[in-house]
Amino acid sequence: xxxxxxxxxxxxxxxxxxxxxxxxxxxxxxxxxxxxxxxxxxxxxxxxxxxxxxxxxxxxxxxxxxxxxxxxxxxxxxxxxxxxxxxxxxxxxxxxxxxxxxxxxxxxxxxxxxxxxxxxxxxxxxxxxxxxxxxxxxxxxxx
Length: 143
Known about the structure:
By secondary structure, this protein is an alpha+beta fold. It is built from 2 helices and 6 strands; from the N terminus they run αβββαβββ.
């Protein structure tokens, strides 16, 4: 090893070590939750709010924020992920605050909170089918 190689090594090594250390400090994005048939819930709820998560974020699309039908107005809410907004636009189903809906889906933990990955959502006589019985999204390949 020549003197020039040794000098370059000592100049470049600290920079590389700094880059490695700083990249290790960035938080890894948590993968999206997976549907788990073992955690299936079937509940009557009331819509407390609606939320659109922008494209590029985890669980992009339409979410219903619901509370159990039997719960009081100020009780804890549950996030119900329906699916990508562009998939849901194909259906003429809309939701509003106060709607009474039946939610069937998988209740899983994500980001430290519970979220229901909806398989079916029923309002009045209309049922919105979002996933098959194994949790495979019907929008897969369509978004």
